Amino acid sequence: MKILVPVKRVVDANFAIHAQADASGADLAHAHFVLNPFDEVALEAALRYKEHAQAGSMNTAVEVIAVSAGTLNAQENLRQALALGADRAILIHTDAVLQPLAVAKLLQAICVIEAPQLVLCGKQAIDDDAQQTPQMLAALLDWPQAIGAALLEIEHVEPRGAACYARVSCVTDDGQDTLELRLPAVISADLCLNTPRYTSLINIMQAKKKPLKLITPAELGVDIAPRLRTLRVFEPPKRACGVQVANIAELVSQLKLAKVLA
Amino acid sequence: MHYDALIVGAGPAGLSAAIRLKQRALAQQTELSVAVLEKSAAIGGHILSGAVFDARVLKALFVDGSASQQRLAALLQTPVSAEDFLLLSKNTHYKIPQWILPACLKNTGHYVISLADLCRYLSAEAESLGVDIYPGFAAVEVLYNAAGAVAGVLTGEMGRRKNGSQGANYQAGTQLFAPYTLFAEGCRGQLARQLDERWHLSAACDAQHYALGIKEVWAIEPALHQAGRVLHTLGWPLSESASAGGGFVYHCADNRLALGLVSSLAYQNPYFSPYAEFQRFKTHPAIARFLRGGKRLAYGARSLSTGGLQSLPKLVFPGGALLGDAAGFLNAARLKGAHAAIKSGLLAADACFAALSERRSADELSAYPAAFAQSGLWAELQQTRNAKPWLEKNLYAGSLMFGLEQHVFGRHAPWTLHRAQPDHARLKKAADCAKIDYPKPDGVLSFDLNSSLYLANIAYAEDQPKHLKLKDPARAISVNLALYDAPETRYCPAQVYEIVYEISPEQPATRAARLQINAQNCIHCKACDIKDPSQNIVWTAPQGGDGPNYVAL
């Protein structure tokens, strides 16, 4: 069984980011980049399933493949995914700006080649918070989708060939939805799904020997031209100080001035 | 895990040693496995300095015209273009003429850099040579072999909870073994302290002396910016409390300004606050003029070793050696430590490689201190060895004496000044000292500590034990508070320590004092480990990767 785990290289949430002076984007010149935390959770879920499947009586071989799209620097994040336990990694290498639809198309192309039973990814990336790629990917592949998984169980009806189901509880605005999806499917993970493991030094060393393949969007035959243009990136205006009033009478008169009270 | 050489700390000393080891192996066509452990989440994350960098040592490290040299040129894009040395008084300043200054204070030919950028550059070079660099892993314990020699280190565990139990994703530390381990933890390294005690490395030298450097980076108005302009100051505000130290203002690339105040930790008044002194330093007209219309981008603090040659411990012990600021090679008179750290790294690596070539293991790398004694670094430190001691005696007379000494005697001054008393023993009782009334931050030039800490990008895994330990918790109140009015609440640049009064409901008239340790503010400066009057506070590494995340300090 193959599980594809798309991962994204994002700016470390611990860093304060400022807008560029010319409002063209964020100033990432000295930023530190990490694996998107939501993707770490998805990868952890894939790894736990793999360990569970290999230990149990099902004796199913599970291969976890980490995929990323972006600059060559993303290799270091894929190496981290390999150190955590992924079996191999693929980097779709491009220096162009990638938007969610382009990423979904690239992942679709990878899915056609790799034919995984499950795409397990993070619900959103912490840099753009788009929350779009998993849904778009499922639509392009015409696969079922479960978005924002808080609980995940994968059951085999029969060990090989026959249908495989995933039972997922998803976090929604008004509670939880429990869905049963027939695989292959796309499932996106919310942070509450699990607590990811730490990498160990030994795993980091061993990860260097695991395969990391480079491929380009052109080789996949995908058009990644952006559909959206960023006009301006700026920091929110500083909050003005509040006004302190001396007594109730002054409060009432200020509220009348502000037309809150008649 | 086994390596041929293990290095603790990915600062300039550690990374240079790694590069040199690999270069030697390449030249001899042998294989050598080298690993560098770094507690910060990313290279450069826990390091800071001004800095005006003497790049000659690096240019010698790489072959002329190579790709490495070209990348180095990109790092060195801001040569020093102009420099001034100011003596500040409360409202005015006096520019000291360049001809009076000794050579050690002249910076022509040097570069304004960010030390973090230097570390990232060295780290990339090291990785391209095949060094295994592991950021996010703290070395917390030295491992010894059966003969009692250093055999390697143990990295810290991950996922230990505050209550002492193991969390769901608990991971034990990893043991790394090597014939030689080079300790390059920087000033007041945690393991270097333990090694010093075990092998009595400081038995024959003066106590080490320290300073605390607090720094900010600002984006300033282009009209006020002059790339490569370097300013050093003495006098106000430290002169008000007769404390030693000085300020710096360096114009870096991209309209950035790096400025800071380095306060000697040998100060005597427990009401002295290095952070508050730095904040008011910025309000001096000679400094403030650069900051108008500017925006603060980053904040950080770190201790430096200023004892120089007189305080240099024995550098080697069976199975290991001390490099860089962990030993104390910083040249306080030249206000530079990075080049000295790199040089010491190269000397140690050469000795280590020679030993490994002879199939030696876990013995003393005596070739390292021997080479140092013959080196240009020794000559440089010998020349300026009396600078700090003179300046700590008295700012004006001391400066005069040091200047005279340099101009007349050069390196051969017939005396060597010693500062026998360790910094922590210099603190006077609170009752004998006057409180210092620091001005409130104005929010334009000077700022409160909380907003500063926000700019240090501090991150800690929440559920972990406190990494700052008290040998005797009762002493925090019975000694520190009772006798010295809790100086740790003032010298810590991260507000880790607070005295909290608790009123019990049964006896509302009495208040019990307790020392609250906000360990998750800690920016790893080591000031508490240095300055606690009874050496009660012990700094240990928190979970790997935790702490500040300095971007380019």
Describe this structure in words.
The complex is a heterodimer of chains A (262) and B (553). Chain A contains seven helices and eleven strands. With 262 residues, chain A is an alpha/beta fold. Chain A has a nine-stranded mixed beta sheet with strand order 9-8-7-10-6-1-4-5-11, sandwiched between helices. In chain A, strands 2-3 form a two-stranded antiparallel sheet. The N and C termini of chain A lie far apart (68 Å). The model of chain A has no long low-confidence stretch (mean pLDDT 91). Chain B has 553 residues and is of the alpha+beta class. The longest helix of chain B has 20 residues, at 338-357. The two termini of chain B are 33 Å apart. The A-B interface holds A 12, 14-16, 18, 30-32, 195-198, 200-202, 204-205 and B 1, 41-42, 45, 116, 132, 134, 137, 155, 158-159, 167-169, 171, 174, 176, 297, 454-455, 457-459, 549, 551-552.
Shape of chain B: globular
Largest sheet of chain A: 9 strands, mixed
Q: Count of DSSP helices of chain A? A: 7
Question: Span from first to last CA of chain A?
Answer: 68 Å
Largest sheet report of chain B? 7 strands, mixed
Spatial extent as radius of gyration of chain A: 23 Å
Low-confidence stretches of chain B: none
Largest interface, C-beta closer than 8 angstroms, per-chain residues: A-B, 17 and 26 residues
Mean pLDDT of chain B: 94
Bulk shape of chain A: globular
What pattern of helices and strands is seen along the backbone of chain A? EEEHEHEHEHEEEEHEHH
The tally of beta strands of chain B, per DSSP, is: 24
Structural class of chain B: alpha+beta
Which range best describes the helical content of chain A: under 10%, 10-25%, 25-40%, 40-55%, 55-70% or over 70%?
25-40%
Portion in helices of chain B = 25-40%
Low-confidence segments of chain A, given as residue ranges, are none
